[in-house]
Design a protein that fits this description.
alpha+beta; about 25% strand; 6-stranded mixed sheet
């Protein structure tokens, strides 16, 4: 992409008023200036468009000047301008501008990098005192036809995917920090419902999801996340969400802060990421393979005076970018904070924000260099809250350094936007921080492969502002998308009917809530159990005894001073004393069954003071060799290699415990829900229908074979609609009780299917009801495998352990949630053995302080879940294994 200069720093409200002479010069001198094509009836003004800048010859780039000129004095007045197709103004957009038109002509500026929308073929203008309700082309007072070579080269139907780009949500706990964000939950709800109305494929947030104004106050932090999750759970939005960590999520106890963030968001919603100790991760868009790199603030609340990125994280980013370079896919980086006096989100000469990334620190400086080194990458940041209209939104060229950068885009704020005050004093410390209910901003990003459109929108009204919508020439492939199987989704389209653009007045609408009714209209059953009748089945269970695990071993007698003979079953493979060995069972026979797999080979070298382990997978061939390193020593010694092979398992015994039961179905549900990984052996056992892929039908087949008492598909003699209604009632209650999992993909999948059933089940045929019952039940069981089963009572208490290496004579646990606590210094813990103590508590408690009852303590800590142990020596939580 050709480098460009940064955007003009003009405010959105500034209008370029041109004289008749200036307009005439522009019209005559521009090769792309077009006379208006006017309808003869009612036409009262002319529209001309002068395309300017380095992109003036490119399709889809809007930069230039639009001029409206009244035909006579009777035609002067207020005009509203809109992007339009051949029939009417495009839905979901604000006016391009509102102009006071004279016979001399009045112009409005389209800034650098702004876009002509997909499907726009015309600009239309209406003379009116307020926005017209009928915005059809035939009713317009002036019409301009966009030249064919300037129209965006794709229709909206060619969009590959879209996502919401949000930042700085700042859910604040009521009574603390909430004064700064009085409309936090309203704004978050509006942002989610706007994303749902546009049916975006996912949302990425740029950090500061919660406010955490008091730093280390974990109880407030957890409470804020619960508010965030509650709004997410109740919203119309049902697709994935991927959060970044910002400075407001960070506190002094960095590892604890990151752990709490990972738990609250679920990250990639799989076991590996949830057990990680880092908040940065990467994922690929599933239809196109486009890459998303989510970076993390790692150090401190104030990024101007701290290195925020570890060497490990920066090397991780560099390695990913090297891997992705020139692979034909778009690459996006999300990182919370912009830079001091550099890049988008700040004025290089007159900064308006006081805590961006300081460039005096090596890690922050390295990130800047990464952006120089990767000009085809898109970089999104937030942090400043600066409103879109200030035009600090896009940059791909550093004029001071004289070189290109990544394509940098600045997010505004969901929680509360800020505006520079109209004053001659510097921006810094001179910002209007007044939050208004009807002002909340974010992007809807549309990918067309070779082009990316960032639609800057007011999310309260779900309307896109043409002046802050940007076109970026991407680095992705222009090949056709791969064929994908359509899935059942809600076809809800944007329902915005109001096109009134908000002004700076503080007058608010009289209705602010968007909370939806929670009734399920078609639900008639009152039971909350998903257990189905079992009286109609006659299938007998397939039972297997637990097979014994086969052990294999062999000894290698090695003289390091001589080469080995074949009879030793090991041979020297290079001069660095690397030996290739072959393992067999102790009878000399090798197994041939496909379900047998070597898991671990342990090599013990006798004669030298070294013990080494080799962990490998041998597949079906137990004779597959492995290589070990032996030190260069003299004399004779013995290598003893032992291996452990899985026995012959029946299809469906995915957890390989020798029994085919509901636990195997749960394992596969987790895999289908992207929460758990399976080995090659487990995948072979899970593929019951032999089609080479693991899907919901395999889960259902395993459940049928296991005969766990609850049927997984509806019986022919039953009422499919009644059974579905019963399940929907159960799911409704479960989603409400488990809303803290709303950031997890598995929760959203259940929510999406449930809401589709609520909206459409009354018109389902019997076969439709059967299919949606099975789909909802399978997704529901996958979520329960992660979040637990409320009906089973497992969530009413949790057991927490403490490793008392401090050797306190008394160990107590003080716990609390909000205003509820168990009175300081808490309850005495029970000694398990040695230094290990435990306590079983109500699962409603969220925080804990371990103490000795007389002054020594450690905390404040967030309780991470059941069967977790806190180790005094390492100041960290881990799973308790007994």
């Amino acid at each position: 992409m050709k480098a460009r200069k940064p955007l003009s720093r003009r405010l959105l409200s500034c209008l370029v008023i041109l004289s008749v002479l200036t307009s005439a010069v522009l019209i005559s001198s521009s090769a792309f200036a077009q006379s208006s094509n006017l309808y003869s009836v009612g036409a009262s003004a002319d529209i001309t468009y002068s395309f300017t800048g380095s992109d003036s010859g490119k399709a889809g780039f809007a930069e230039g000047t639009i001029t409206v000129k009244a035909k006579d004095s009777s035609s002067t007045g207020t005009y509203y301008l809109y992007w339009a197709n051949d029939s009417k103004a495009l839905d979901g957009y604000y006016p391009i501008d509102k102009l006071s038109v004279t016979t001399s002509g009045v112009s409005t500026k389209m800034y650098t990098q702004t876009a002509i929308p997909a499907d726009a073929t015309k600009i239309i203008a209406f003379k009116a005192s307020s926005e017209p309700t009928d915005k059809s082309v035939s009713k317009a007072d002036a019409v301009y036809t966009i030249p064919q070579n300037k129209r965006f080269p794709h229709s909206s139907s060619e969009k590959r995917y879209s996502f919401g780009s949000y930042s700085d949500i700042h859910i604040a706990n009521d009574g603390y920090g909430s004064g700064k964000y009085p409309y936090d939950e309203v704004h978050w709800r509006k942002a989610l419902d706007s994303a749902a109305a546009r049916n975006v494929d996912f949302i990425v947030t740029g950090g500061d999801n919660v406010n955490n104004q008091n730093g280390d106050s974990q109880s407030n932090y957890v409470s804020e996340w619960k508010s965030y999750q509650k709004v997410l759970a109740e919203s119309d939005y049902c697709n994935p969400i991927y959060e970044s960590i910002g400075n407001h999520e960070m506190w002094t106890s960095k590892s604890t802060a990151i752990s709490a963030f990972v738990k609250a968001t679920g990250l990639l919603c799989d076991e590996e990421s949830l057990k990680s100790d880092k908040a940065y991760y990467t994922f690929d868009e599933p239809k196109t393979g486009d890459h998303f790199i989510i970076m993390a603030i790692e150090n401190n609340f104030n990024p101007k005076y701290n290195d925020e990125f570890s060497t490990t994280q920066l090397n991780w980013v560099k390695n990913l970018l090297n891997k992705y370079k020139n692979d034909g896919h778009n690459t996006y980086i999300y990182e919370h904070a912009g830079f001091w006096k550099w890049g988008v989100g700040d004025d290089e000469d007159d900064p308006y924000y006081d805590i961006p990334l300081g460039l005096d620190y090596s890690g922050n400086k390295q990130l800047q260099q990464i952006l120089y080194d990767n000009p085809n990458v898109m970089f999104f940041c937030g942090h400043t809250h600066i409103y879109f209209g200030a035009q600090f939104n896009y940059m791909d060229y550093d004029t001071k350094a004289g070189k290109a950068t990544a394509k940098m885009v600045h997010n505004s704020s969901i929680g509360g936007i800020r505006k520079p005050k109209t004053s001659s004093t510097p921006h810094l410390g001179n910002m209007d921080r007044t939050n208004r209910e009807d002002e909340t901003e974010g992007y809807f990003v549309d990918s067309y492969g070779d082009y990316i459109i960032c639609n800057g929108a007011n999310l309260y009204y779900n309307l896109v502002d043409p002046k802050t919508t940007y076109i970026v020439e991407g680095c992705g492939s222009t090949d056709p998308l791969p064929t994908t199987t359509a899935t059942t989704t809600s076809t809800t389209k944007p329902t915005t009917t109001s096109t009134t653009k908000p002004t700076t007045t503080t007058t608010k609408p009289t209705t602010t809530t968007t909370t939806k009714p929670t009734t399920t209209s078609t639900t008639t059953a009152t039971t909350t159990s998903t257990t189905k009748p079992t009286t109609t089945t006659t299938t007998s269970a397939t039972t297997t005894s637990t097979p014994k695990v086969k052990q294999y071993s062999v000894e290698y007698n090695i003289n390091s001073s001589s080469y080995l003979t074949p009879s030793n079953r090991a041979m020297l493979v290079d001069e660095n004393s690397r030996y290739q060995c072959v393992l067999s069972d102790n009878s000399g026979k090798t197994p041939s069954q496909i379900e047998e797999y070597i898991k671990t080979v342990k090599v013990v070298m006798k004669g030298v003071n070294i013990t080494s382990s080799v962990v490998t997978s041998f597949g079906s061939d137990i004779n597959k060799s492995f290589v070990i390193d032996i030190p260069k020593v003299t004399g004779n010694f013995v290598i003893t290699a032992t291996g452990k092979s899985n026995p012959l398992y029946v299809k469906g015994d995915v957890n390989m415990d020798g029994n085919l039961d509901v636990q195997d179905a749960t394992v596969v549900q987790k895999y289908v829900g992207h929460f758990k990984k399976l080995t090659d052996a487990q995948i072979a056992l899970a593929d019951l229908n032999g089609d080479g892929r693991i899907a919901i039908n395999d889960v259902t087949a395993i459940q049928k074979r296991a005969l766990v008492g609850a049927k997984t598909s509806l019986i022919a003699s039953g009422s499919s609609q009644d059974d579905l209604n019963t399940l929907m009632t159960t799911v409704k209650d479960y989603l409400s009780s488990k809303y803290t999992y709303s950031s997890y993909d598995q929760y959203m999948a259940v929510k999406k299917e449930y809401r589709y059933c609520v909206a459409n089940s009354s018109s389902f045929s019997s076969s439709d009801a059967l299919n949606h019952y099975n789909s909802l039940n399978s997704k529901f069981n996958t979520l329960k495998a992660i979040a637990g089963d409320v009906s089973g009572g497992g969530d009413t208490t949790v057991t927490v352990y403490f490793d008392n290496t401090a050797n306190w004579s008394t160990v107590k646990a003080y716990m609390w949630t909000g205003e509820t606590n168990n009175s300081w210094p808490g309850e005495s813990m029970t000694k398990v053995s040695g230094t290990i103590y435990k306590i079983t508590v109500d699962s409603g408690y969220e925080n804990i302080i371990f103490n000795n009852g007389s002054g020594s303590q450690i905390g404040n800590l967030t309780i991470p879940g059941n069967n977790q142990i806190f180790k005094y020596s390492s100041n960290s939580w881990s799973a308790y294994t007994g």
